[in-house]
Amino acid sequence: MAQAVQSRSITVTAAYEPRARSAEARTKTGQLRRQARQWRDGLAWSAKLELLDARPRMEPPYEATVHGYFPPQAPEDLPSPQDWFEGIATALGEALEVDPVEIRLHAGRVAYASPFSPAHLEIVVTPTDDAAEDLGVVCPACGNQWSFDPDLHDEDRCPHCGHEDGGLPYRLGMV
């Protein structure tokens, strides 16, 4: 029986809240607006819940890619995920129990939300340790990680269990 392989990332979904944008999140006196505070608290709780399933435990520093799915509007009026970076960094910092500076945020794709899906932000958080990048492939049969270089290997057999096609996504150019 195949062992389930745990991902080295978490995906957190946050509702689209235009008043949580950096430009609209604070009052003229600098106080955080109620909608922005609630949005950040909700994002922090969602991230904490996702972390409960994260195995192995993710260690700082982190990278987060923010994808935005917004309501249909004129293409030039589509907001940018960077507008929420301040709030996302604060919420993820609270959830991951790190300083928000240890989270590198990147803008991902921006698109319209599907017809029956609400507008939302999708945040993918991964650890940025170099060891994970060197491992490359996770065997779908045994769950062990191993380095796979398609230029050096004629076959993509797992060195731990002998399962074939473990590096197939790399061969096909999918990863």
Q: Count all strands and give the number.
A: 6
How many helical stretches? Answer: 4
SSE succession: EHEHEEHEEH
Mean residue pLDDT: 78
Task: Indicate the low-confidence ranges by residue numbers.
Answer: 1-6, 130-135, 170-175
Computed structural class: alpha+beta
Shape call: globular
- The strand order across the widest sheet is 1-4-2-3
Taking the sheet with the most strands, its summary is: 4 strands, mixed
What is the percentage of strand-forming residues? 15-25%
Protein traits:
single chain, 175 residues, alpha+beta, 23% helix, globular
Structure notes:
This protein has 175 residues and is of the alpha+beta class. 23% of the residues lie in helices and 21% in strands. The chain is built from four helices and six strands. It has helices at residues 34-52, 85-96, 130-135, 168-171, and strands at 10-15, 62-70, 103-112, 120-127, 137-138, 145-146. Strands 1-4-2-3 form a four-stranded mixed β-sheet. It has a two-stranded antiparallel ribbon with strand order 5-6. The longest helix is centred in the first third of the chain and has 19 residues, at 34-52.
Can you summarize this structure?
23% of the residues lie in helices and 21% in strands. With 175 residues, the protein is α+β, with helices and mostly antiparallel strands.
Question: Helices, strands, pairings?
Answer:
Layout lengths: L9 E6 L18 H19 L9 E9 L14 H12 L6 E10 L7 E8 L2 H6 L1 E2 L6 E2 L21 H4 L4
Helix pairs in contact: 1-2
